[in-house]
């Protein structure tokens, strides 16, 4: 399956979930004729149609490619291989969210900087802890002290 | 132009420092390869949350101005454009550097950017001011027409895939339906999460899809070649200024038209102006071999666009590029909706934007020279540390918006969505337009029907709504015709190849 077919299927599944959720929206005596469900229902129908068109186009393109073996696939093959790295990025972010209320902002942000630097391939030497601690102090000074945002203080720090 | 307002704003707010800080941030951000103008602006968005509206808008607009110049620095020095719109500058800029004229190329870029920005600002002021009279005539029906016009430009922003553009816009509108509905106040798609009751702030979607997805895309990418030698900017001599006049004029005109065109943007303007400058040049054979005109034309064009692209944004609330979409996010954070009524209800913001942009443009000449060593230092930083600091900035910045960890998680999700959209070839801008305009289209449509007791003829009784809806229809038909024409042309081009084989 090519990218169009996969993305079309993902859209269709998302659309089905959205449509189902739209049917759970309660009616109200304050509702107008169009109602709170009106736009979600219309959007759902349109997205369903577009998803089917994208799937159909993907399947047609796949058939043409199969039929014409001489034509090279012009899509770079390394695209999919970067997906795990992107997911790794998100997981590090999720780890930050989980640790923030426990460790507190200065420690959590320091750890996150060190983790990302390692994840992105920084040389494992003294520069990582130095850059992480410097960054932690810098961001704490900017956000907590200078801007007075009040980043979360954790149970430990 | 209200000079009394300018004086008041200059003396009672942080407008001038904001313009200069935004400019500095923009030059530094633009100089980082892979960090586009829109990402540079998105990174700053959370910081503007607590600022006065006019100060915040000026700061963001100044970032855009600075980033357009900043992008040319790595384009000239290491053959890697800092922003997309600096890609055309690489051709002759890097050739000049190879010939030992890096300082001269940077000077031409700075001077051309200055002239382009000034011309763009002049056009912005003269073309948007007359719109203020329209403000008083706007009704809910007119806003519905305006929203539809905004959505109709999606067709031209979908870069070859109208269906994907439309799908992205519908997903954006679905995101906009989260929260209380605009008439009855019924909760939709909140799933018991209190953070979703007030809806989803467009700024969260913007930061996720623009800034975070870029980090994911660049994750694991190899390091760029560093730059070791010292370089000083040399502004063009009087003779050189005279020589560059023609290409700068071409760049200005191209920048004006592309800024007005939805989906146009600085990159297209830069390449078009480069081609036209070569065509009209007395020495076209020198293009590609280190021609100063080859630097001047695209740099004038993309800097002109930084101002002229604000014309459709301020006039109709339509962001025609990623950067103006982020600027629109800045407006929305402060409860401002660009469009005709902005000129009536928040005239001081518009005036402040004009003046702040002027300050940033003038400051660009000075800071462009002063900041060069800092830009070179930044370009030489190892990518892993840059990525770590940028992510830390994003995470910390989002928390300032609403003190919510849920929002940080939501932005991470939007980052992944942006990554997947890029990989599957879905454009971002329709998604953002859907998020921004979805609420306006629904609320104005339903309010109009409440006023008319459900009679749709109310839309035909408002001449502004009729005009905007007709313009939308014309735009959609033109975009469809263009797409079919382009598709037919590419098929015709492909046909002879097959026969020749």
Kindly state the number of beta strands of chain B. Answer: 2
Q: Poorly predicted ranges of chain B (pLDDT <50, ≥5 residues)?
A: 497-501
Outline of chain A: flat
Task: Report strand % of chain B.
Answer: under 5%
Q: Kindly give the count of domains of chain A.
A: 2
Largest protein interface, residues of each chain = A-B, 73 and 60 residues
What does this structure look like?
The complex is a heterodimer of chains A (157) and B (501). With 157 residues, chain A is mainly alpha-helical. Chain A has two domains: 3-67; 81-146, no CATH class. Chain A has five helices and no strands. In chain A, helix 3 packs antiparallel against helix 4 and helix 4 runs antiparallel to helix 5 (127-146). Chain A is flat. The model of chain A has no long low-confidence stretch (mean pLDDT 86). Chain B has 501 residues and is mostly helical. Chain B has one domain. Helices cover 72% and strands 1% of the residues of chain B. Chain B has 23 helices and two strands. Chain B has a two-stranded antiparallel ribbon. In chain B, helix 2 runs parallel beside helix 4 and helix 3 crosses helix 11 (202-218). The longest helix of chain B has 38 residues, at 463-500. Chain B is globular. The chains are: A mainly alpha (157), B mainly alpha (501). Chains A and B meet through helix 1, helix 2, helix 3, helix 4 and helix 5 of A and helix 10, helix 11, helix 20, helix 21 and helix 22 of B.
Give a quick precis of the structure.
The complex is a heterodimer of chains A (157) and B (501). By secondary structure, chain A is mainly α.
Main attributes of the structure:
heterodimer, A: 157 residues, mainly alpha, B: 501 residues, 23 helices
SSE topology:
The complex is a heterodimer of chains A (157) and B (501).
Chain A: H1 3-23, H2 38-67, H3 83-103, H4 105-119, H5 127-146
Chain B: H1 3-12, H2 15-31, H3 37-44, H4 53-70, H5 72-77, H6 87-98, H7 102-128, H8 140-152, H9 154-157, H10 162-176, E1 179-180, E2 187-188, H11 202-218, H12 238-260, H13 265-280, H14 292-308, H15 310-316, H16 322-333, H17 340-345, H18 347-370, H19 372-379, H20 383-402, H21 405-424, H22 429-451, H23 463-500
Antiparallel strand pairs in B: 1-2
Helix pairs in contact in B: 2-3, 2-4, 2-18, 3-4, 3-11, 3-16, 4-14, 4-16, 4-18, 6-7, 6-14, 7-12, 7-14, 7-15, 7-18, 8-22, 8-23, 10-22, 11-16, 11-20, 11-21, 12-13, 12-14, 13-14, 16-22, 20-21
